[in-house]
Amino acid sequence: MIKALIFDFDGLILDTEWPDYLSWQRVYRQYGCELAVQDWGQIVGGDAESDFDPYVHLETLSGQTIDRDEIWISRRKEYLEDLDQQEVLPGVLSLLEDSERLGLRRAVASSSPENWVRGHLARLGLYQRFDAIKTADDVQQIKPNPELYLAALSALGVAADEAIVFEDSPNGVTAARAAGIFCVAVPNQVTAQLQLDHADLRLGSLAEMPLAELLKTVEA
User: Fold this and answer.
1) Is 157 left (phi over 0), alpha (psi -120 to 50) or beta?
2) Which residue among 10, 15, 20, 168 is the active-site one?
3) Active-site residue 200, yes or no?
4) Relative to the CA of 54, which of 159, 175, 191, 208 has its CA 20 to 30 Å away?
């Protein structure tokens, strides 16, 4: 019987990844170049072994030496301003409401730093709606290692077969499966380009399947 839901954060609850990509795309276009979504996807949970560096890639494409510090400052400022305008992704609120009504426990398990995750959850008014929040600051190894999900299970007091994970990236799916948890892949505009076939179920958004139907599917 399912007793808990565990959510990734970036790209699943809040779309931090597409605005990040767009901020880099603007930089690339200033140099007359294009940043392919597939390339950017490598560093947002696609390939654990990827050494893709957007600065190096830009220098290679443009044939120019770039001022990395200047780009970091200006791009980061634009990105954070855009991000502050973002709301939760479709289906998040209804899923939280339905899980609360059914008495299911809820956690976030994110490879991002604690201040990043907690800060955005607070801004979105979601911080108090989770029973546990586990981030990169709580573990020795982040995704695709299963440690984050094992920590979330422990904090919630449930077994792996009593939880469902919602993830948007290959690394996250790998981590959830390694922890023995049923994993639902819900890709965003960036991670939709990546390989997610190892998930137990794939949805177009969190709004696609009502929680009651999902529970029947998992518990069948």
Assistant:
1) left
2) 10
3) no
4) 175
**Residue that is written with structure tokens 């799916």 in the block:** 173
Tens digit of each residue's pLDDT (9 = 90 or more) over 138-151: 999 999 999 999 99
Phi, psi of 96 (to 5 degrees): -65, -45
> Using CA of residue 137, residue 140, residue 143, residue 147, what is the dihedral sign?
negative
Comparing CA positions, the residue from 169, 154, 80 lying closest to residue 119 is 80
Give the residue among 8, 218, 190 at the shortest CA–CA distance from 92.
8
The secondary structure element, H or E, covering residue 132 is strand 132-134
How far apart, in Å, are the Cα atoms of 155 and each of 72, 88, 99, 150?
36, 24, 17, 9
The answer to whether 129 touches 107, Cβ cutoff 8 Å, is no
* Distance separating alpha carbons of residues 141 and 184, to the nearest angstrom: 22
- Residues 124-183 have pLDDT tens digits of 999 999 999 999 999 999 999 999 999 999 999 999 999 999 999 999 999 999 999 999
10 is annotated as an active-site residue: yes
